[in-house]
Structure formats: structure tokens, C-alpha cells
Write the C-alpha cells for this entry.
Amino acid sequence: MSVDVFSDTILAAAATSEADQVQAELMALRAQVASLQSERAALWWENNHDDLTGLANRRMLINVGPSLLSSGGRCAVAVLDLNGFKPINDQWGHAIGDDVLRTVARRLSHCLGDDLAVRLSGDEFAAILTESSLPGHGCDWSSRVGAIAAAIAEPMVIDGRELRVTASIGVATTSDGPAAIAELLRRADLAMYRAKADRYCSNIVWD
């Protein structure tokens, strides 16, 4: 083998080795970026969702609410407080109570479809309802909230026991014009306490 051929072989091998090293470094960099993106997504989920139910939490409601309210069309904010949950929790324990909350969360989420379902704390939930979610032109907020209340009130079987909770629901709408999410929450919360005070009432619409 001539010196020139030998040199060319060495140079080709070196170039191949360098290319392989660059490719390996690129793959390692891509893996690192993917890992960081995954960690970031997991952290975002943890910060914006309730651990027990998987619903959005209050932080996400406050952060996302304004954009939902300004997206056009009528909107409503509902605050829900469960009736009958505490006796279940006290009698059957927190594990059963947690299953009740998860069941309520699934029912609420199912009723809302693409709208935002939120667990505020304890046995208190919230939702942002949008005009696009209304099933028909003849449907009003009272009918929509009534359907949510009816779904939550359906009996549930947990650990072989048939249990039942209901919801007191207060609703504040943007019918009179735009309003801040904090103001709608305040109004809906007051309406919910009015519903809570009337044992014959399952939901109250503010407007």
C-alpha cells in the first residue's frame, strides 16, 4: 500500500469516526431536550391540576379563565358544593370519600365536554361554561346547570355500597357584558351559598 493510499484510508476513517461522534452527540442532545420537555410538561400538569381527581385546579382556573371568557360569546362560571359528602367521609373513611370525589369529577367532566372543570378544594368544584357548549338555541344556563346537578345526584356504587350526594350550584353569567374571572367567581360563590341555604334548591342562576 502506498503512502498516499494509506493516508487517505486514515483520513477517511478519522472522518467517519468524527461523523459518528457528532451524530451520537446530536442524539444525546435530542434525548436531553426531550427529557427536559417531558419534565416541564409534568411540572406544568402538577402545578395546574388536582392530584386526586385530575381536574384543573384553582391556579389553572385563574390563569386560563380570562382567555376563555374573552374568546367570544356568552360564558358562565359555576361553583358547586356537595351535599351529603361529609357524612359519607366520616362514616366510611377517606378512601371511600376520595372515590366519591373522583366519581363526581368524572361526571362533571363528562357533562362539560370541552369546557373547563375545576376542583377548587375539598368537596367544592367549579366550571366555566361557554356558549358553544349549549346543545341548542333553546337551551339556557339553568337547563345546562340542572343537567349537571342531575348527573351528580345519580346514585353511585363504591366498594359495594350505594351512595348518593347532591350539589348546591351557583352560577354567574356574562349576559350583562364582560366581567373578570374573580368577579364571576365571587358572584357564583354567593349564589351557591343561597342554594346551600335552601334545601329544596339544587341550583341558582345569578342573572
Q: What stands out?
A: The mean pLDDT is 83. The CA atoms of residues 171 and 188 lie 5 Å apart.
